[in-house]
Write a sequence for this structure.
């Protein structure tokens, strides 16, 4: 059985949406802060658990947290750019596209 792509009967015009630059910023900022908090807390807990499991000292735990902070910050920067980019696409009435996993891709003019 093949799956059928369903399209809505009525696609609202761009002017029908009540989205401003401020509302796009707030949505993107909310997603960015949520990403930073959730992944940061998970990474910090992981570093603490590894340090406790292998009986490493507090200084080694801080080193682990510093190392884990690098991918967390990378992910947060990427999510901020992607969220802003998607909010602007939605306001223009465009659909979501395939993500590009480059750090500053969504902050450049080509995005």
């Amino acid at each position: 059985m093949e799956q059928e792509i369903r399209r809505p009967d009525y696609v609202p015009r761009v002017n029908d949406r009540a989205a401003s630059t401020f509302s796009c910023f707030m949505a993107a900022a909310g997603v960015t802060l949520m990403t930073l908090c959730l992944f940061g807390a998970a990474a910090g807990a992981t570093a603490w658990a590894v340090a406790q499991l292998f009986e490493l000292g507090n200084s080694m735990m801080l080193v682990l947290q510093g190392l884990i902070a690098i991918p967390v910050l990378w992910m947060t920067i990427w999510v901020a750019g992607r969220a802003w980019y998607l909010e602007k696409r939605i306001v223009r009435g465009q659909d979501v596209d395939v993500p590009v996993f480059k750090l500053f891709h969504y902050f450049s003019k080509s995005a």
Observations:
- Helices lie at 21-53, 58-91.
- The chain has two helices and no strands.
- The CA atoms of residues 78 and 103 lie 5 Å apart.
